[in-house]
Amino acid sequence: MSEHTATWANVYDVRPKSDVPAESPLAWSYHDSGRPNVGANSRVVMRERAMLGHLILRGGAIVLDDVVRQVLGLPLPARPNSLSLDESGERSIQWLSPDEWLVIVPGGEECELEGTLREALGDAHYAIVNVSGGQTLLELEGDKVCELLMKSTPYDVHPMAFPVGKGVTTVFAKSSLILRRVGETRWELVLRRSFADYLYRWLLDAGEEYAIGVEA
Amino acid sequence: MFHIYCPYCEELREEEEFHPKGQAHIARPADPEACSDEEWGDYLFFRDNPRGIHHELWVHAVGCRKFFNITRHTVTYEILETYKMGEQPTITAESLANREAQGSVQVAGSGQQTVGASNASVASVKGVKA
Amino acid sequence: MNKSLKQPNRLKEGGRIDRSRKLSFTFNGKRYQGHAGDTLASALLANGVDVVNRSFKYSRPRGIVAASAEEPNALVQLGSTEAAQVPNVRATQQALFEGLVARSTNGWPSVQRDMMGMIGKLSGSLMPPGFYYKTFMAPASMWMTYEKYIRKGAGLGRSPMEPDPDIYDHLHQNCDVLVIGAGPTGLAAALTAARSGARVILCDEQEELGGSLLDSRELLDHQPAAQWVAQVLEELAGLDNVTLLPRTTANGYHDHHFVTLHERRTEHLGETASLKGGHRTARSRMHRVRAGQVLLATGAHERPLVYAGNDVPGNLLAGAVSTYIRRYGVVPGRRLVLSTTNDHAYRAALDWQDAGREVVAIVDARSAPTGDLVAQARERGIRIIDGAAVLEAKGGTRVTGARVATIDAEAFKVTGQAETLDCDTIASSGGYSPVIHLASHTGARPTWNEAILGFVPGLVKGVHAAGSARGIHDLAEGLADGVAMAARALETLGLSARAIELPQIDARHEGAACALYQVPHEKPTLRAPKQFVDLQNDVTAAAIEIATREGFESIEHVKRYTAMGFGTDQGKLGNINGMAIAARCLGKSIPEVGTTVFRPNYTPVTFGAIVGRHCRELFDPERYTALHQWHVEHGAEFEDVGQWKRPWYFPQTVNGKQETMHEAVARECLAVREKVGILDASTLGKIDIQGPDAREFLNRIYTNKWLKLEVGRARYGLMCKDDGMLMDDGTTSCLGENHFLMTTTTGGAAGVMEWLELWHQTEWPELQVYFTSVTDHWATMTVTGPEARNLLAEITDIDLSRDTFKFMDWREGKVAGVPARVFRISFTGELAYEINVQANYAMHVWKILFEHGDKYGLTPYGTETMHVLRAEKGFIIAGQDSDGSVTPEDLGMQWAVGYDKPFSWVGKRALSRSDTRRTDRKQLVGLRPKDPTVVLEEGAQIVFDPDHAIPMPMVGHVTSSYYSPTLGSGFALAVVKGGHHRMGETVYLPMANGQTHAAEIVGTIFYDRKGERQHV
User: Fold this and answer.
1) Is the preceding peptide bond at C932 cis, omega within 30 degrees of 0?
2) pTM here?
3) Which of A93, A135, C59, C940 would be C117's cystine partner, CB 3.0–4.6 Å?
4) Does C918 contact chain B (CB < 8 Å)?
C-alpha cells in the first residue's frame, strides 16, 4: 500500500487472527426464539450465512468499474437495483445507489480486498467501509417464499417485477433490509444487526403457516 | 399513500420508503453574513403554500438515500414529475397556466392524475426529466 | 320438533342454499336453524324474526331492510365468548355457521323493552335534530354523566374485553387491473383483462362472486345467469395472472391507486379461525393493493321510498325481496304491496307470486307505466295502482297495512283518497343509486345525472367506473360496458385487449322511471308520522326540514346537524333521499344542493385486519445490541431509547431482597465514582466519513473548529440547525487525514445521517466526501472509573500510560485478543475508555472484561446511572436539556462555537439575529433544591415570585433532575430566563399538589468543577 493511501484513510483489520468466539447478529434470536426444525412440509427454509465480509463501496461508477472488474473479476452493476454474483455465488456486488455498492465476500477476505481496492483506486475519490459486524445474510428458499415476502414488504416480488439478479433496499415489516433474488425460489435478505432479531421473529411468525424451518 | 418515482432508482416506490423535506429550491444564501435579519428569517422560516403546483424536496430514505424533487399538485395530489438534484422542473404553475391558455394541454382539473404502475406511465414520467 | 326450529318463511325449493346441511344458531338468546349458504339475515327472515334491533335514537323496533352491505338496521354483535366479541356486523353480510351466536347491537337491556325506548316514548316526536346537543349539554358538568348512559343505551356495539385469540395479517399486492365488484360488469371486465395477460385482482364483498346474476331472472345464452357466472369463474380461477377474492370488501381508496381490500377468510366458518395443518392462519387479511388501473364495478344500491312508518319491520327494498326469494329460498312475508317508481322493481312482485304468496297490489308512482315487466304483471292479473304510492305503513313490530293514494310528485301532494291495503310486507323502490363511495374516497366529486336520477362517480385518471356503478343498469349494456372499460384500462397500460364473446340476452323493453324520493302525506312533513331517511341514524324527513329552516343550507351542515349518513352507514340508503328533501325545502335542485363526501371505510373493518401482524411482540421493532443476551441474563431492567432496548439499571439481590431502582442506581453511581463501571454504549450513532473534503465538511456542519484535529485525536462538537438551535452533539475522531468517525446521540443517529446527506447533496455537492453508517458494525463498551486503566491494562497491548494515551486520544490495539479502537472520551467525568470492536466479537471482549474486573469492583451500569453521572458534570443531553429552541449560547457552551471560522457554518448567522441576542432567553443553569432531600420533577415549571397572583409568569422549567448519591442530595439542570446572570438567586417550583419547592440557581457543574478526574 502506498504511504499516501495509508495516511488518507485508516484501514484496520478488525477480525481477530486468534481463535476468538464470535456471535452472529442472530445469536440471541436462536437462543431466545429457537430454530424451528426443517420438516418435509416446510415450504420455506431459512439459513443464515453468518460472518461474511461486507464492504460498502462508494464512488463514481466509471472510476470503480475497471477496478472492481480487475480485483473481483465481476462487473460493477451499473443498472439500478441489479446484482452481480460470481459463479460460486460466494462473492457478489450489488447496486445500492448511483454511487454506492455492497460487496459481500467470504468471511476473512474483506480486509485484504479493501486494501487491494484502495491500492488500485489510488488518488480517485472513493470510500470503502467495512460493515461486516453490522449485518448478516439470511437465505430463504421454498415455494412459499414469495407469499411470505408479500406479507412483509410492499415491494412487488412478482417475477415480472423482481427477476433473478435483482436486489433492492426496501421496507420490510416496520423495518428495512436489502432484498435480493438469487434464484427462482431462492432469496437473500441482508439484515442490519440491531434489527435482526425483530426481523427473525417476524419471519418466523409470518412463516408459521408454511411450516418455516431454520437450518442450523 | 403516494407512489413515487425515484429518479435515481428509476422506478416507482411506496411512500413508506421516502421522507418529505419541505419546499424545494430553497437555496442557502451564498453569504449569510451579508443577509439582513429579515432576509435570513425569510430563508429560515417562510415557505410557499400554494393551491396547485408545488415543488417539494424528498429523500429516498429507505432506498438509495438520494434527495430529489417532486412537482406535485396540492389539490389532486398528482405527482407531475420527479427530477434529480440540480435539475429544474419542466412543469411549473406558470408553464401550466400558459399551456392551459393555449388550450394545448388537458389539465387534471378536479381529477387526480397519478403515475400508475404501467410501463407507459413510467415512460411518461421519465420523459419529463430529459 | 321444537317450534323455534321451524323456518316458516323457507321455501321448499329454490335458492343457492344447501338444504341438506342444517346449521343451528342463536340470536338474542334464542336458538334457530338455517342452512349452509344462508346469511344470518336470510336465516332470521326464514325463521320469521321481524324485530332484529332497536333504532339508535328513538329506540323503535327495526327489521331487515336490505340483503347486502347497505343494510342499516340489522347490526349485530357476534360472539359466544367475551374474547370472540365482534361489534357492528351486518347480518346481511355474515354467513351462517354452526353455533353462531349473535345479539342485537342496540337495545340494552333488551330489544323488546329498553331504557332508550323510555326516552324515545317520553319525548316522542319532540326529539328534534340536535336533540342531544340541545338537551344534555346544560349543565355542562352533567354531560359526562348523560353521555355514559346515552352511549350505553344508544351505542353501536362494544369491543371485547379479552384478548383476541385470532391472528390477522397483511398481504401486499401489485396488479395491473383491480376490478372491484364481481357482478356481470365486473366479471366481463375481469375476463377481458385476464385474457389480455394483465395481472388482475377481482374482489367482491359477498360470499359468492356473481353479484346480481346470482338472483337474476335473466337468461344468458339461454341458460340461467348463474351458469354463465360459473363458467367465467372457472376460467378465471385457472389463470395464473388472476387473483379471485370473494368475501373481500374494498373499504378504502387511497392516493395513487392504493386500495385496501379487507378479506374475511374464516369469518364464514366459525368464531375463530381453526388451525391449518397444525398452524395458525389469519382470520382476516388486509390486501394492500397498488394497482395500475382500477375498475369500479360496484353496482348500485336501490333507493327506498320515504313514507310514513317506513321503518316498521316488514318494509323492505324491492330488490332485497327478490334476493331473499331467489338466492336464499326465503319469502319474508305473506301479503306484499310493492311501491315503485320503475320497471325493474316489478321483479319483486313476480318473484313473490312465483313463491306462491299473495301480491296485494303494485303501487306505481308513474301515471301510465309501460314496459315488458309491467305487462307481465298485468297478464298475471296483479292489481296495479297507477300514479300512486304508499303514503304510510301501519303496524308496530310488523307491517299490518299500507295506506295508498294517488299523488302529484312534482307538486308534492296527495291527490286522491287514501285506501288501506291489508298486507304484512311493503317493498319499495325509488330507483338505483350508483355506489360511488370508493370513487368519492379519491377526492373526485360525483355529478348528478338526471337521466338515471342518481349521482355518477367523478373519476380521477386511472379509475374507470363501469355498468351500474355509472348508471348503466341494463344487463346487456352493463356486460358490454365492463368489456369496454377494461379495454380502456388495458390501453392505458399499453396492453391490447383481447375481445371476449358476450352472452346473448333477450332484449327487454323498459319504461322510463319517475323521480320520487319523499312520498307526500296528507299532513305536512313536520306533523305527519315519522318518515325515515336514514334508518341507522334515525334521521327523518322532518329533521331535514327543520335543519333547513334553522338555517343549515349547505348539505354538509345538514348532514352534521342531523347525523345523516354518519357512522358505519355512510349514507348508503339515505343520502340521495336526504339531499332531495333538503333540495325541496330549499327550493333548489339536487345537483345544486350537492352531495356529501363519503369516507373510508365503506363498511366497518375489524381492528385486527388493520393491525395485521404488527401487534404484541411485533408491534414495533426492538433493536438489540450485541450484548443483549448478557444484559438479560444479568437481570437488567430495560429502557426504551427510540427503538433500542438499553439496560436502564441492573438491580441486584441483596440479602434476599431485590434492590429498588433508587438503590441500584446509587450503587452503580458510587462504583463508577470510586472504582470502575461498564456501560454498553453500542447504541450511539456512528458515521464513517471519508474524502478529501471531510474536514471542511465537518467544519461547516459543526459549530466548532475541525481543520487542525490530528490523526489519533477526538473532539466534541455541537451541531445546530440553520436557525442556530442545537440539534445534536457528539465526538468525532480523526482516523486518517481524510477519514473521520463521527458519533451521534442514540436517538439522533438516523436524523444526523440524513442531515449530513442533505447538506452534501443539496448545498455542497462539490465537496468530496462520503458518509456511511457504521452504528451496527461496532459495539462500544465504556469502561470508566478510577480503576479503568488498571483493569484495561490487564487485557490490552495498548500503552495506556497517562502521557502517551491522553484524554481525547484514541488508539488501536488488541483488547482481549480482538482488534479494537479505544477512545479516551468521558461522559462520566471519570477516567474512561470507550472500547470499540467489530460487533460479532463484542460478547467475548465484554466477558473477558468481567473475568478480570472482579478485583477492581467492575460494575455494569445502565442509562439511569449514566444520566446521573453526566448531569453531575453538567454534560447536556441533546433533546432533553435542549428542545429545538436552545442555542449553544443558551447552554453556556460558547467554548464550542467557532465564531471566527471563515465559512458561515450551519447555524452561525442565526446566532446574531435579534431574537437569539436577547438577554432574557431561557438559559441552562444548575438548580440546588433548598431542601436537599427533594428531587425536583423534570418538566416542573419555574417562577420567580411564588406569591404572584395566578396565572404566574413562568420563567423556565427543569430539564434534568436526579438524586446524587455522591453529593447526597437532589440536584437539577433547568432553563431559566436570563439564568446565566442570576447565579445565587432563588427560584420557586409550585407543584400540582400545592407544595412549592425553592431552589438556588447555581452553575451546571456539580462535581469535580475543574474536570481533573477525567485527565488522571
Assistant:
1) no
2) 0.93
3) C59
4) no
- pLDDT per position as a tens digit, B57-68: 999 999 999 999
Q: Do the Cβ atoms of A169 and B66 come within 8 Å? A: no
- The C-alpha cell 441576542 sits at C917
Task: Round to whole Å and give the CA distance between C179 and C9.
Answer: 36
Number of residues that make up chain A: 216
**DSSP label at residue C796:** B
What three-state secondary structure class fits C812? strand
Q: How many domains does chain C have?
A: 5
Question: All 3 cell numbers of residue C486?
Answer: 377494461
Which residue in the set C613, C622, C812 is minimally distant from A205, CB to CB? C613
Q: Does C610 touch chain B (CB under 8 A)?
A: no
Query: Mean pLDDT, to the nearest integer, of C197-204?
Result: 98
For residue C237, give every residue at least 6 positions away whose Cβ sits within 8 Å of its Cβ, in sequence order, or none.
Answer: C244
Query: Is C178 found in the same domain as C84?
Result: no
Q: In whole angstroms, what separates CA C320 from the centre of its chain? A: 32
Give CA–CA dist C442/B67, Å, rounded.
28
Provide the residue ranges of all domains of chain B, joining segments of one domain with +. 3-129
Left (φ > 0), alpha (ψ -120 to 50) or beta: where does C462 sit? Answer: left
Question: Residue C76 corresponds to which cell in the numbers above?
Answer: 349485530
Whether residues C256 and C387 fall in one domain = no
Instruction: Give the pLDDT band of residue C127 (cuts 50, 70, 90).
Output: low
Residue C395 sits in the same domain as residue C444: no
- Considering C154, C187, C216, which residue would you say is the last residue of a domain? C154
| Residue listed under C-alpha cell 315503485 | C340
CB-nearest to B62 from A80, A100, A176 is A176
Q: Pick C613's closest partner by Cβ from A192, A197, A206.
A: A206
Centre a 10 Å sphere on the Cβ of residue B51 and count the other Cβ atoms it contains.
9
Tell me what pLDDT residue C143 has: 53
The Cα–Cα gap between B121 and B115 comes to 6
pLDDT digits (tens, 9 = 90+) for A147-178: 999 999 999 999 999 999 999 999 999 999 99
Is B65 in CB contact (< 8 Å) with chain A?
yes
Amino acid letter at C797?
Answer: D
What is the rounded CA–CA span in Å between residue A185 and residue A143?
Answer: 6
C-alpha cell at C133: 346537543
**Cα–Cα distance between C1011 and C118 in angstroms, integer?**
77
Please answer yes or no on whether A131 and C620 come within 8 Å at the CB atom. Answer: no
Is 3.20.20.370 the CATH number for B3-129? no
Looking up residue C242, the CATH number of its domain turns out to be 3.50.50.60
Q: How far apart are CA C233 and CA C227, in angstroms?
A: 10
CA–CA separation, C209 vs C196, rounded Å?
A: 21
**More confident position, C128 or C967:** C967
Question: C667 — phi, psi (to 5°)?
Answer: -65, -45
Q: Does C797 reside within a domain? A: no
Domain range summary for chain A, segments of one domain joined by +:
24-215
CATH of domain A24-215: 3.30.1360.120
What range defines the domain where residue C353 resides? 304-430
C543 and C565 assigned to the same domain:
yes
